[in-house]
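Hi support team,

I'm filing this because I wasn't sure whether my run with adenosine-5'-triphosphate finished correctly. The job status page said complete, but I'd like someone to confirm that the output block is well-formed before I use it downstream. Pasting the exact inputs I used:
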Amino acid sequence: MSAVATDGRSARVAGAEIRLAGVAVELGGHRIVSEIDLRIAEGELVCLLGPSGCGKSTLLNVIAGFLPVSAGAVSAGGRPIVGPGLDRGVVFQSAEALFPWLTARQNVEYGPRRRGVPAAERTAAASRYLNMVGLRHVVDRFPDELSGGMRQRVQLARVLVNQPPVVLMDEPFGALDAQTRAVMQTELVRLWQATRSTILFITHDIAEAILLADRIVTMTAGPDARLKTVAPVSLTRPRDLLDPAAVALYRQLRDDIGTEVTKTLQAQGLASAAEMTA
Ligand SMILES: Nc1ncnc2c1ncn2[C@@H]1O[C@H](COP(=O)(O)OP(=O)(O)OP(=O)(O)O)[C@@H](O)[C@H]1O
Ligand SMILES: [Mg+2]
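And here is everything the job wrote out:
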């Protein structure tokens, strides 16, 4: 389903299904990932975990339409992905993605303005989404007048205001302190439950993945990485990381990822560091 209600009256959008079938990606003549088969259902929240450099961002960039595949097929909402589109919003790790010369409100209004949404409607929509991320009181501040957590919320509002059926998030909370990060994780689940968009969320943090995801996908070490495991998370929300099922899942994922991180470190000649993590 396409985005609706440009004035922001309704936050609910139906998510779109993402499909990757037999996907391989080459960059600079090197095979980065191969044989990627993944289906993310409409409205599902999937977290992707894997060692540094294995190709997580590469896969996200393929779905965003920033990178072509060298083999296989990738689609969103049943349509082949041939480039970036308004149906897929991307939230980056760094809030540098905000325009520093625009206020929080103007940053959020940027997308609707580009789409030709009339001024009154886009102002109402920006207010609604800035309220949703708890920034009602700072809408007229510039990015450098906001904390890192606030900037990241503006980025989230700037993506969500376009009501994309798919939201792609590349370590969006990676640069935040632990307390702000915990608040943002709770906020994200709340916003996702309100909008029901499909979310692919990359993280290095196993606990974050367990708190957020419907399913957690792990990857092997690169080069030529594959998907390694897919773990459904059946815990009810809000989740408790001390729940025995969460602890068991944490152990399993730590082992899945740990062996791949060790391989990566060894490949980089960091044998002693690899032994330390073993
Ligand atoms: N333009 C490029 N040309 C050649 N190789 C590239 C290019 N861009 C990325 N790579 C390589 O592709 C691999 C995967 O990179 P990617 O950024 O997808 O990893 P990642 O899993 O997101 O890592 P991190 O967790 O550190 O963000 C890396 O080995 C990287 O060096
Ligand atoms: Mg990355």
